[in-house]
Amino acid sequence: MPLAPIDKDVRLDQLTLDPYPIYRRMRAETPVVRVESANRTFLTKAADTKRVKDDPELFSSDDPHTPMQRAFNAHTLMRKDGDEHRRERMAMQKAYTPKIIKSNWAQVYRDITATYLDRLTKGETVDLYKEICGPVSARILIHVLGLEGATDEQMMRWSQNLIDGAGNFGWDPEPFEVTDRANAEMDAHIASCAERHRAEPNDSALSLMVNAADPIPWSQIVANIKIAIGGGINEPRDAMATIAYGLLTNPDQLEEVRRQEAWGAAFEEGVRWVAPIQASSRLVMEDTEIGGFDIPKGDVVMTIQASANRDEDLFEDGENFQVFRPKNLHQAFGSGPHHCAGANIARRTVGEIMMPALFERFPNMKLPDPAAVMWRGFGFRGPINLPVKLN
Amino acid sequence: MVKVTYVAFDGTETTVEGEPGASVMQTALDNNVEGIVGECGGSMMCATCHCHVDDAWVEKAGPRNDGEDDMLECAASDVTPTSRLSCQIKLSEDLDGLRVLLPEEQV
User: What's this model's pTM, rounded to 2 decimal places?
Assistant: First the structure.
């Protein structure tokens, strides 16, 4: 079989600005394609992205050549496979279960959301992304992880620093200097919180990990918490902003969502339409084939879930936000062993608590100029502003 | 082929045929049976394919696999002694006629 075709034209800055027309073209013309500027083989069809993620033996997460290890000063579970990955993941998974969220935390999250909404006044025009989406996500994550004492600003900065470091594929020294400083701050804060959790255990991720009968090593507890900081703010933030945009620009759907209380469906459609995590990499462990092309051992494939989520084979009118789809088999949370550990939390907090609270508080909220909303991101994507008139 | 009956939370029954070796989760997805999500594709990482095995079939379906208990704790609906992750039950001729009951919610 031939090797996949090479795309020499597509640039990362184009993918950052608006990848969707490019992915639509790739799905139609070159669904498996070596993108020169990314040095990766892009997979844009849902069947291929799922197959790769469901087969960790052939398509490994353990790629030693990514900047993540340097950024986190650790080999994190994101880049592990098999039993080691499962053990580290299960050490904190209980903190993220629907039952724990419902019984222990739902009221806390409702109160947090209400407190931040209280700061806003009807009649004002505010940037919802800046005032609500980011800070509420950060504040909720502090409770989920057991990091009380950190500020919203610290959490958001740490998260962004880690993301910038892990995405520093040019290996510039400066982003790593930033992550080194953030790591020192996080290490100190996590250690002090752990002391408190040993004395007063609760159901937060850090508390469950330090008080486990057979705990994972301290280095991995810290690494796990950092992964959750890196991945636990921007995704709910971007999901929230995307869903709000989708509903505000489709008032008929908003009305129907309200009538049916279909906030769960609105959540699923938001993360399908613009997946907060758009792409992931996997290292090819043996010569194989995908979609009729030879994929050699050592190649790095990128599953483009952003594209899978709009695949014409699965979705009618996938380019548009349409809450009331008959089926919504999106891959926004991935698939396989690395399926998003925070999926439950995201569904419960963003879908069941934050979105209804926002639209209940400001039932006549408007987005006066949808064109003013800027979208950015290739690996992670969402609006970076959301100027709404509150009412 | 192996017959499997899925009993939805509202009591609606759907009977489909699956290949021996396929999981109860995958068989549901392949046949558009509602009520099983199977979001992690059978890697035992999400608990969105939770089912209760009908009492008459518990023994034949076998015990839970390693790690299944822990993941079941993450299920959205109540877990009972007959709870299984349907991705971990593989169809065989012995299971022809298997009945599984689906929980109220998976996510």
Answer: 0.95
